[in-house]
Every structure is written in structure tokens, then in C-alpha cells.
Amino acid sequence: MIQKTALHGEHMALKGRMVDFAGWELPVMYSSIIEEHTATRTKAGLFDVSHMGEVIVKGPGAEGFLRRLIPTRLSKLAPGTSMYSCMCRDDGGVVDDIFIFMVSGTEYYIVVNAATLDKDLGWMRSHADGDTEIIDVSAETSKIDLQGPASGDILKKVVEDERAGGMGRFQFFYTDYKGVRMMVSRTGYTGE
Questions:
Q1: pLDDT tens digits, one per residue of 110-138
Q2: Taking the alpha carbons of 151, 155, 50, 72 in that order, is the dihedral positive or negative?
Q3: How many CB atoms lie within 10 A of CB 176?
Q4: In this structure, what is the dihedral angle of CA atoms 117, 119, 123, 128, given to the nearest 10 degrees?
Q5: Quick count: other Cβ atoms within 10 Å of Cβ 91?
Q6: Backbone dihedral region for residue 94 (phi beyond 0: left; psi -120 to 50: alpha; all else: beta)
Q7: 55: how many CB neighbours lie within 10 A of its CB?
Q8: C-alpha span between 33 and 50 (Å, rounded)
Q9: What global pTM score does this model have?
Q10: What is the CATH number of domain 56-139?
């Protein structure tokens, strides 16, 4: 059965051309690919990427657990920062590329690819110990990417949080927006 994001009704109302992407019905375009590419590269574009997987890794053993799964040095992170990395198999091969957000010294927020969520969760759980809790929050999480050179200015107006204007690359914070807790991050790797 094909899955739909919380914004599916909006995509349909805006006459998005819908496609099956990794088991999710998502818009591939609205007007034209060229127009939307140009708008994103010159101003900004908004992308519903709620199909991505989100996993919370927490507990006193969270850092050690992640150090066993990724080749990147977690010591580079501080609360409120993130990194792009990959989860590796025991032989060094790649399980999946991931984003790791350090919420605190004992809690990390991980974004994985939609098509590999089940495999990634299985891999994580097979390597977890009693000091680490792995929580799949994908079903209750929506993810929207705002990309393009005007994205910072737009974000400041919408979020109404002074921190939005001064974020460096790979930084994030939590805030409330209309009564909903949300993470705001500057973590794109498709170019700014």
C-alpha cells in the first residue's frame, strides 16, 4: 500500500504531478522541472521529504553505540550541531548515508533514507546494547526542506525565532511553531 505524507492533500490541491517514490506518493513537479529548478537556484523551493526515516538514539551508551556504527568522529559534534555520515557494515561497506544531530551527550536524532528505514533500524537494533534505546519516530514526523539562496530570509520570517537568522552550516535548534515543537536545521547537501 502506498503511503502519503501529511501534506498529500496540499500537493493534490496544488496539482502536483504525483509519483511513487520508495512506496510514498510524492510530487515530482508542479509547473515544470526547469521553472522549479530555476526558482530554487535563484530564490527558494520547498520540498516535502516527510518520507525520510527519523530515529532517536538515546541513553548513556548512545555515543559509544554510534561510534561503533559510523566512521566519522562524533567528538566533532556539540549539542545543536550535526554531521553527514554513513552507517557501516562490519566489513566497512556502507549500510546507508545518514544525518546525525547531537541533541545532548546522551541523545542523537538520526535521519535515514526512506527506502532503507527498515534495514537501517534492523542494523541499529542488532548492534544495540542495554545502555542504548532506539526509537523510530518516522510515522509521527514530517520533514520539509527549504532550499535556495533566499531560504534564510524566508525562514526568519516564518519561524519568528532570532536563532534562525544566525545558523551556521550543520547547526540546528528546537522551537515551537503554532504550538508544535519542531527542529530547524541548516543541513542541506544539495548546494546553497
A1: 999 999 999 999 999 999 988 999 999 99
A2: positive
A3: 10
A4: 50
A5: 5
A6: beta
A7: 20
A8: 20
A9: 0.92
A10: 3.30.70.1400
